[in-house]
Design a protein that fits this description.
By secondary structure, the protein is α+β, with helices and mostly antiparallel strands. It contains ten helices and ten strands. The structure holds cytidine-5'-monophosphate.
């Protein structure tokens, strides 16, 4: 039986409130400590039932229409688990900039897993979906639940946290992105830290305290800025526009500035827009509203 109506699923972006590189592992990946947070900015997917075993993806950004699209790979993976009994045509409308460290591709993949679990009535648990997500990429498991989480391992070890203090956000990005692999390739021992900053932020979240906005860290900033000098320029532009704190998200190239007052975020966003910088005004989002699991859309 196939569902009669298609299913809309939102796929939220994320920021890394902290991101620390603890060291390099024998498998070539880097061991990470991070507090990740979903945001309201989101891609939108529409899942249409298709004949058994057929999976396709149509994206409004033509460059993302290839076979390596992570959303399509997620559908193919779930189709194997499902025994090829169903099919899907995915429509993907992008709003999250690509290669920005905002997790867009990973979130699309998680949205396909959680959405097809419903469309195909597979009844896979969140734990099983998280296992499958880890096969698609290090950041994908986080998006199965979203919200605020402590991240370990290569990114796939997700410990849910209570929702962190809600914040307005201004995101800004240079005109180009950079691949995660290229950034990790430039990381050196000098970028390693001990995870203390991440533990401190996770503890603040657990206690329900305000976030230490001036003490957020990202150990990938030197490597990413080496690969793409414009990140430093955008960071400067956001500070010049009046943001008290600015951090890069993930492996870049986007940066974010957190605010407690909308009026301040609006001022910074308009100054950036006037200066011709690509910028978004958004906010942090909660686990249940942003994850695509159990959400009525
Ligand atoms: O897991 P994912 O496919 O997103 O990772 C892309 C690339 O980023 C990996 O091939 C690896 O080179 C690098 N990476 C890393 N350490 C991590 C995550 C990613 O070195 N924790």
């Amino acid at each position: 039986m196939s569902a009669r109506f298609p299913l809309f699923v939102p796929a939220p972006a994320k920021i890394n409130l902290t991101l620390e590189v603890l060291g390099k592992r024998d498998d070539g990946y880097h061991e990470l400590a991070s507090v990740m947070q979903t945001v309201a900015l989101h891609d939108t997917l529409c899942l249409h039932s298709a004949p058994p075993g057929e999976c396709a993806c149509v994206c409004d950004v033509p460059q993302l229409n290839g076979e390596d699209n992570l959303a399509l790979r997620a559908a193919r993976l779930l189709s194997v688990v499902d025994g090829g009994r169903h099919g899907v045509t995915i429509e993907l409308c992008k709003a999250i900039p690509v290669q920005a460290g905002l997790g867009g591709g990973s979130s699309d993949a998680a949205a396909v897993l959680t959405g097809l679990n419903r469309l195909w009535e597979m009844r896979l648990t969140a734990g099983r979906l998280t296992e499958l997500a880890a096969m698609l990429g290090s950041d994908v498991p986080f998006f199965v639940r979203g919200g605020t989480a402590l991240i370990g391992g290569r990114g796939e070890v997700v410990t849910p946290l209570p929702d962190a203090e809600p914040l307005w956000l201004v995101l800004a990005q240079p005109g180009r992105g950079v691949s995660t692999q290229a950034v990790f390739g430039r990381v050196t021992g000098a970028d390693y830290t001990d995870g203390m900053a991440t533990r401190a932020v996770a503890e603040a979240v657990r206690r329900g305290d305000d976030l230490p906005l001036g003490r957020l860290v990202n150990g990938l900033e030197p490597a990413a800025t080496g690969a793409c000098g414009e990140i430093g320029e955008v960071r400067e532009a956001v500070m010049r526009a009046g943001a008290p704190a600015v951090r890069m998200s993930g492996s870049g190239t986007a940066v974010f500035a957190p605010f407690r007052r909308l009026s301040q975020a609006v001022d910074v966003h308009s100054r950036l827009a006037a200066a011709g910088v690509r910028a978004w005004l958004t906010r942090t989002s909660e686990a249940s509203a942003g994850s695509g699991v159990g959400v009525d859309v």
